[in-house]
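[Structure tokenization] protein backbone as discrete codes

[Encoding] learned vocabulary of local backbone shapes

[Begin record] amino acids and matching fold tokens:

___
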Amino acid sequence: MSEYRMPAEWSEHEGCLMAWPTREDLWGSVLADVKEEYANVARAIAAFEHVTMVAPPDHVEDARAHCGQDTAGITVVEMPLDDSWFRDSAPLFVLDADGNRAGVDFRFNAWGGKHHPFDADDRVSALLLEHLGVDRIASDLILEGGAITVDGEGTLITTEQCLLHPNRNPDKSRDEIEAELKSRLGVTKVIWLPYGGLLDTETDGHVDGVCAFAAPGTVVVSLPDNPNHPDYARMRANRAVLEAATDAQGRRLEIIDVPQTAFADLADGQIEVSYLNYYVANGGVVVPVAGLAQDEDALAVIASAYPGRKVVGVRALAIAFGGGGVHCITQQIPAARTGAHAAG
């Protein structure tokens, strides 16, 4: 086990990292819409904690114009980028026993080479750590942050559909991948779910569309109540694995089901907005919504999983068009303990 551990997402944050959307070949006709949605997500999070928005050199002023200046709790900084999914390309932060921070710099290959170029995004984790003044821990494992969820007490959940996909780490066995997760993130138990979302072809089934730890021993899961949903049987298979599992502390898991699903029309097609793809902020939860009637019921279920936090829905249709949600475009910076090294 590493001397460092990855804290749970509900632990105290120093702030949040985001990256400004610029990839025209991905966003196409919804580029203007997605900029508005990214800015709205940033402002929603900034009501709870500071947001650092990274933009490539030619887009800094555009990001500032959309997001507002530092007085809005959002700071725009310049850095080379290819894409705008910081859950996957930014570092995963870990803490040692004294509360000192480090960042694990996993390799990034644009979800198995689906977009080119991606070399700037493979380098951005190291640049962010240098900018923040946080020590870097290098790993040769290709891993996106959206592929895992942790409880901060030794347990990690992932999907076989993603982590065992041959376009990520074809030279590593399941045992070798699990050993690297344990070593770098300080976990002692990995729970493997068989499935991500069937329609999630962009990430090959990230766990953040189907399952999230909400507290030690508590997991929120997507469980579509419509038998015609493409994941109806798949999510029930995932749930069965969770029902049979125990966490690193030997606890049976309390499972909170989110039966609501959201399909909406955008850019001449139908897209799915995943309610599970939310961001847990200091005192709040920012949830992607589709502007449909079932939004409110889903928000109520998520609120029940996070008592004491304000739950805020943000329209995220264009973000979903690009293949993700609020969780996908954010990365939390955990707070260092008092007296420990803090990011600059």
